[in-house]
Write a structure and sequence with these properties.
219 residues; eight-stranded parallel β-barrel; globular
Length: 219
């Protein structure tokens, strides 16, 4: 299973410590950096302008924008960051006025373009035309914005619906599940056809980060 460790904090030193704890694991090639503006959710993290302060080594990252108007933060990322380390840009649709410009701009940078749906946001929130430009679909299994929340089982219905929709497309779309995932959920997620997960608190609060990460990777 693809594991994308989730980095969610306003502290550069805390994030660097998390990166350092998993950077030697060869099976982890990408982390997800969460950007929250304090408006979309009651939390504040680093901004795209802060990302160059992190030493990511050879890791790539997905930028996950939980913000009002994610396109503005995408422009900041373009202006401030080393473009070669970005794998994907993923916007929460709930505060995204226009999906097509976000997806088009990400793709123009040769990045994967993604949309994320909060726990109670239906799949119908994705515009019909957006599916043709979509490289990544992320489904939140908690309410977006806070690490440490409990996994919500209703996401499995949305997983089935999303996979049915993706199967009708003429291109691949990576499906990522994000939030509250613990090792005991891996079997059920795997049986549901999930191949990529984003994990935060279950990693960073574990007694042995490496061993926990390896457990997720084997899932």
């Amino acid at each position: 299973m693809n594991l994308y460790p989730s980095l969610l904090s306003d502290s550069i030193s805390e994030l660097q410590g998390q990166i350092d704890s998993i950077i030697e694991l060869s099976d982890i090639t990408t982390v997800q950096i969460d950007v929250i503006d304090g408006i979309f959710a009651d939390n504040i993290t680093i901004t795209p302008a802060d990302i160059p302060l992190l030493n990511l080594g050879e890791l790539k990252y997905d930028a996950h924008f939980m913000t009002v108007e994610p396109l503005d933060f995408l422009y900041e990322l373009i202006a401030e960051c080393d473009k070669s380390q970005v794998r994907a840009c993923i916007a929460q649709v709930e505060k995204l006025s226009f999906q097509a410009p976000f997806l088009e701009e990400a793709r123009q940078q040769q990045w994967q373009a993604g949309l994320s749906l909060d726990l109670f946001t239906p799949l119908s929130a994705i515009d019909d035309e957006s599916w043709e430009q979509l490289d990544v679909l992320q489904l939140m299994s908690i309410e977006a914005g806070v690490q440490g929340s409990h996994f919500r089982e209703q996401v499995f219905e949305k997983i089935l619906e999303a996979q049915s929709h993706i199967a009708k497309l003429d291109h691949e779309v990576e499906l990522i599940i994000d939030g509250g995932i613990k090792p005991e959920l891996l079997s059920k997620l795997s049986k549901a056809g999930v191949q990529s997960i984003t994990v935060g608190s279950a990693l960073w609060t574990s007694a042995d980060v490496i061993q926990t990460a390896e457990t997720f990777l084997k899932g």
